[in-house]
């Protein structure tokens, strides 16, 4: 399995010299295509920072981060934009953070595809299909404010998968759901990822989520250590 | 909350989601800020445009009225016969053409002979009343073009021989009890019972085609017997007591001159008058003096309206900046989301720009429509201010000013959109702090802009210019230090307000700036309107209309902006003080602290605005003629 994600000695800090906060310290991570990793850890341990760096939203202050052949530390603005548009899909901790409230579910899925080079028909077909995969086919024309928390989470996932990313980054995907709804969503997500052979990094506090991934990484005070994986689901 | 878009549960045009459509949806999704921006944009375009239209209407209507009332130019001289008449005609015409070109339109020559007393009418002695009246025998060149024949006909020019044919105004005929085909005989001067020396037959009765036709020289036709040129000069051979009086008449043409060229035309007319006047020759005109007076008044009225237009244009820019900033502030998370989804900065900028831009397009269309309606309404009032007096040459100036305002608005929206998409693309990140220095710099730049626009107009009143500069400077300083009044306030709201104003002293600069300019416009207008109202002269009437429109529009705009700004500030405060509220700070204290800030900002800006308005009024407003 070739490495899609190669992180070596990643260090990331916030603030100026006088009040610097070190969020990540020498994190190493390698991820092959289609591989799924759960990142666990206490609040403030640096999990979300790791996702932001992998998504190209934060420029790493030290170390190597290479995703799909692009070194994010040296990438230009346009390269980072292309990375966010075509390589990664992001599901925010609060799913509504990833949605535009004035657009319908369908339009929200279409947003990442604007300027992707696909034809109009292709974009709409793909968006409708994604919404179907995530069981939102009856919510296509609804605004996000009309959706239940589970449906909102599902819509956020559909938007993140819109451009067929090679790496899905999900922050506390199931935090707002009961376990039955969370399990159903994770199952549907795995199917969708399977279909496009996408890898995933899922930040979670819930150990049960770890059963849906290949590996678990524990981050504590900015340092990442691998931990044993529970027996797979099913 | 709107569950779906499209009314029937379908979202129209979803497949064609473009940056433009997304921009429109984003801009209009939150109705309040969108409506506020629309109103500000409409006012920002409409107010300066309306003032410029009123200015142009004032100039054109005033110019037209000046020419209507005082456009005549006549040269009068006694002549001995037809040769002298022709010689005078040629001499005057040559000078008039040389000095005034086509600005003076020749109405024609007039020769008059009198007084003529009627002895017999219809071969019977004239009644006592008729015999007491005297008539004037005239030859009026181009008479046929200015009358409508009521009875009979006008004999063609050049027809002579046989009995003298005369025509006369119907009103004069009624007064003298004369009818068509009557034979009338009379003589010059002398007693009523003297023997008749001259007879003629009335072959036509007419009335003036247009009552206020310049052809009549401002006076209605009187007791005249009009005849052909040959007949009049034959009559002159009968030895009248007074020599034949020749008048060569002109009228100033509105088509050949513009209000801006009034002073130059006055100079030409004065020079022509000097050329033609002599002991034997009289020049009858007040055109040069009227044009000079008009030009002087028009310049001052125009300066006042231009200054007010500049003031409200900058005010509009400030209001639009503030409203657009609030609108984009509401979209900050969503714009960041687009960037986080990989949208290029340029494409995200398009969304942030096109939304307000499309709102602006509809607002500009409404503003221009509103201006046209206002101009039509002014015309319909029949006060003398008329849009019908405008001519194509007035349009480029007005259009250029509107284009400048529109360009400034577009640039402002573009800059604000760029600022909104420039920063951190993380949608869940807290809103970035405002670059406060930029707000202050924009305010200072706008003040300097007003000064640059207004100061060149102040050449007639140099002492006021330095004072204006001082007040502009003082106003700018006043905007930056609205904390002075809070220094002794020890209450919780006072402390919170002081904290806010000390920490971010220019956070209210935009609202304060708009309020200051609105106050300046209102005071400027109040001083102008206080000097006199409801004049019937279009120029002064236009000034009144412009001042009132600018002041009311500016105050409404400022009130709207003030409300939008402090509503937005209150929302921010409640978020900011969330922790304090959770720890028991009464929510009312937050509202009261904001009220204190509002009072300080409003007080400071109103004071600065009033000062600015007074100085502008002293410097720019014209003194009305008694």
Instruction: Bin the strand percentage of chain B.
Output: 5-15%
CATH class of chain A: Alpha Beta
Strand line-up of the largest beta sheet of chain A: 6-7-8-3-9-10
Order of helices and strands of chain A: EEEHEEHEHHHEHEEE
Strand content of chain A: 25-35%
Summing up helix and strand content along with how strands pair, one would put the structural category of chain A as: alpha/beta
Contiguous runs where pLDDT drops below 50 for at least 5 residues of chain B? 1-14, 430-437, 458-463
Q: Give the uncertain stretches of chain A in residue-range form.
A: none
**Largest sheet composition of chain B:** 11 strands, mixed
- Based on secondary structure, the structural category of chain B is alpha+beta
- Kindly give the count of domains of chain A: 1
Helix proportion of chain B: 55-70%
Rounded mean pLDDT of chain B is 81
Structural summary, described in words:
The complex is a heterodimer of chains A (234) and B (626). Chain A is of the alpha/beta class. Chain A has one domain (3-227): P-loop containing nucleotide triphosphate hydrolases (Rossmann fold). Chain A contains six helices and ten strands. Chain A has a six-stranded mixed beta sheet with strand order 6-7-8-3-9-10. A four-stranded antiparallel beta sheet of chain A has the order 2-1-4-5, with helices on one face. In chain A, a hairpin with a 6-residue loop joins strand 1 and strand 2. Chain B has 626 residues and is α+β, with helices and mostly antiparallel strands. Chain B folds into two domains: 23-66 and 296-620, no CATH class; 71-293, no CATH class. Helix content of chain B is 59%, strand content 13%. Chain B is built from 17 helices and eleven strands. In chain B, strand 2 (104-121) and strand 3 form a beta hairpin. In chain B, helix 3 packs antiparallel against helix 7 (262-276), helix 8 (287-340) runs antiparallel to helix 11 and helix 8 packs parallel to helix 15. The longest helix of chain B is centred in the middle third of the chain and has 54 residues, at 287-340. Chain B starts with 18 loop residues before the first helix and ends in a 6-residue tail after the last helix. The chains are: A alpha/beta (234), B alpha+beta (626). The interface between A and B is large, with 41 and 36 residues.
């Amino acid at each position: 399995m070739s490495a899609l994600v190669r992180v070596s000695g990643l260090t990331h800090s916030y603030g100026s010299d006088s009040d610097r906060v070190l969020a990540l310290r020498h994190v190493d991570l390698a991820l092959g295509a289609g591989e799924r990793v759960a990142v666990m850890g206490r609040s403030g341990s640096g999990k979300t920072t790791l996702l932001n760096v992998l998504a190209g939203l934060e420029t790493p202050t030290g170390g190597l981060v290479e995703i799909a052949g692009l070194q994010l530390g040296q990438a230009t603005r346009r390269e980072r934009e292309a990375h966010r548009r075509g390589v990664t899909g992001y599901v925010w901790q609060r799913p509504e953070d990833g949605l535009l409230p004035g657009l319908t579910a369908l339009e929200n899925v279409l947003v990442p595809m604007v300027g992707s080079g696909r034809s109009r028909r292709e974009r709409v077909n793909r968006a409708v299909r994604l919404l179907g995969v995530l069981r939102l086919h009856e919510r296509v024309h609804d605004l996000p404010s009309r959706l239940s928390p589970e449906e909102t989470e599902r819509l956020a996932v559909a938007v993140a998968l819109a451009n067929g990313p090679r790496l899905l980054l999900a922050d506390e995907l199931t935090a707002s759901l009961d376990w039955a709804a969370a399990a159903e969503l994770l199952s549907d997500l795995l199917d969708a990822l399977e279909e496009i052979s996408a890898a995933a990094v899922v930040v979670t506090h819930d150990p049960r989520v770890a059963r849906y991934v290949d590996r678990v990484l524990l981050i504590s005070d900015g340092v990442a250590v691998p931990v044993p994986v529970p027996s797979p689901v099913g | 909350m709107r569950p779906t878009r499209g009314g029937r549960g379908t979202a129209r045009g979803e497949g064609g989601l473009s940056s433009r459509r997304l921009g429109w949806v984003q801009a209009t999704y939150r109705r309040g800020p969108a409506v506020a921006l629309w109103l500000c944009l409409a006012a920002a375009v409409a107010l300066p445009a309306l003032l410029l239209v009123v200015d142009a209407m004032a100039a054109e209507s005033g110019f037209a009225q000046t020419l209507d009332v005082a456009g005549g130019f006549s040269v009068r001289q006694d002549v001995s016969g037809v040769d002298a008449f022709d010689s005078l005609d040629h001499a005057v015409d040559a000078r008039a053409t040389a000095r005034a070109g086509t600005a003076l339109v020749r109405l024609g020559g007039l020769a008059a002979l009198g007084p003529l007393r009627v002895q017999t009418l219809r071969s019977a002695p004239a009644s006592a009343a008729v015999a007491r009246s005297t008539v004037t025998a005239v030859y009026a060149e181009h008479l046929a073009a200015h009358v409508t024949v009521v009875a009979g006909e006008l004999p063609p020019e050049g027809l002579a021989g046989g009995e003298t044919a005369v025509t006369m105004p119907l009103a004069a005929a009624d007064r003298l009890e004369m009818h068509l085909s009557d034979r009338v005989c009379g003589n010059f001067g002398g007693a009523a019972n003297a023997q008749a020396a001259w007879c003629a037959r009335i072959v036509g009765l007419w009335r003036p085609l247009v009552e206020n036709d310049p052809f009549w020289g401002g006076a209605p036709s009187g007791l005249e017997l009009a005849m052909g040129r040959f007949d009049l000069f034959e009559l002159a051979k009968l030895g009248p007591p007074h020599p034949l009086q020749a008048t060569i008449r002109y009228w100033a043409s509105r088509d050949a001159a513009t209000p801006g060229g009034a002073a130059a035309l006055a100079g030409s007319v004065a020079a022509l008058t000097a050329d033609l006047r002599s002991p034997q020759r009289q020049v009858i005109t007040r055109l040069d003096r009227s044009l000079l007076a008009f030009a002087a008044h028009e310049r001052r009225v125009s300066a006042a309206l231009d200054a007010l237009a500049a003031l409200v244009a900058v005010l509009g820019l400030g209001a639009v900046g503030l409203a657009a900033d609030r609108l984009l502030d509401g979209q900050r998370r969503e714009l960041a989301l687009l960037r986080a989804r990989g949208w290029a900065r340029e494409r995200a900028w398009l969304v942030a720009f096109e939304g307000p831009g499309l709102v602006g397009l509809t607002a500009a269309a409404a503003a221009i429509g509103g201006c046209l309606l206002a101009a039509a309404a002014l015309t319909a009032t029949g006060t003398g201010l008329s849009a019908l007096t405008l001519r194509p040459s007035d349009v480029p100036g007005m259009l250029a000013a509107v284009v400048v305002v529109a360009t400034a608005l577009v640039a402002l929206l573009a800059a604000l959109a760029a600022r909104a998409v420039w920063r951190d693309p993380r949608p869940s990140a807290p809103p970035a702090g405002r670059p406060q220095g930029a707000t202050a710099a924009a305010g200072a730049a706008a003040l300097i802009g007003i000064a640059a626009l207004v100061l060149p107009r102040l050449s007639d009143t140099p002492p006021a210019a330095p004072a204006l500069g001082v007040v502009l400077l003082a106003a700018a300083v006043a905007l930056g230090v609205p904390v002075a009044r809070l220094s002794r306030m020890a209450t919780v709201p006072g402390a919170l307000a002081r904290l806010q104003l000390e920490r971010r002293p220019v956070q209210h600069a935009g609202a304060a700036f708009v309020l200051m300019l609105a106050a300046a416009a209102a005071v400027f207008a109040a001083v102008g309107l206080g000097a006199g109202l409801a004049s019937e002269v279009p120029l002064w009437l236009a000034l009144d209309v412009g001042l009132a429109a600018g002041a009311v529009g500016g105050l409404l705009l400022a009130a709207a902006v003030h409300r939008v700004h402090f509503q937005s500030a209150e929302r921010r405060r409640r978020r900011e003080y969330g922790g304090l509220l959770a720890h028991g700070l009464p929510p009312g204290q937050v509202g009261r602290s904001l009220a204190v800030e509002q009072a300080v900002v409003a007080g400071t800006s109103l004071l600065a605005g009033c000062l600015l308005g007074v100085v502008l009024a002293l410097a720019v407003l014209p003194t009305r003629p008694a």
